[in-house]
Amino acid sequence: MDPEKTELVFQSYGRCCQREAFFVDFYDRFMGSSEVIREQFVKTDMAAQRHLLRNGIMQLILYARGMPDRKLRDLGKSHSRHGYDIHPEWYGLWLDALVATVAQHDPEASPALEQAWREVLTPGINLIRDAY
Ligand code: HEM
């Protein structure tokens, strides 16, 4: 993965994490994308979930920067048919919601930066999705 791209995304994520509403807005958008997505979180403590996702996105970025895949493999297990049963086709909605939330919150957002986010996160997302 192009280190300049992962660096751009890493910096962008830093700006997003400074925004109080980033994770609230992400889950509002993601759950709003489909009734079936909302149903996955009916019993979830969303405050805790937002906190866990903060680290999860970091793991996706670190994986693109060459870090070992162990933590993503764990997420692959927990999200698989033996765990939360997260269907592979839902990951596209997840990435669309995330990129839209970045565009909303990062003051330096641009179409090129949104594209970089997609490229940088896709290998890690595919790893989790393909463990289904
Ligand atoms: C839990 C990250 C995609 C639904 C979690 C956790 C993390 C996480 C860090 C908590 C740790 C764990 O339980 O293993 C991610 C990342 C994703 C992703 C990085 C993108 C690749 C999705 C998608 C859905 C989803 C597409 C579909 C609705 C859930 C659910 C939980 C969960 C239902 C458990 C909530 C609970 O404990 O009640 N996710 N997730 N995730 N995720 Fe994901």
UniProtKB/TrEMBL annotation:
Domain of life from the UniProt record: Bacteria
Lineage: Bacteria, Pseudomonadati, Pseudomonadota, Gammaproteobacteria, Pseudomonadales
SUPFAM superfamilies reported for this sequence: Globin-like
Organism: Tamilnaduibacter salinus
GO function term, MF aspect, one: heme binding
UniProt protein name: Globin
Record Gene3D superfamilies: Globins
Residues covered by the Globin domain: 1-132
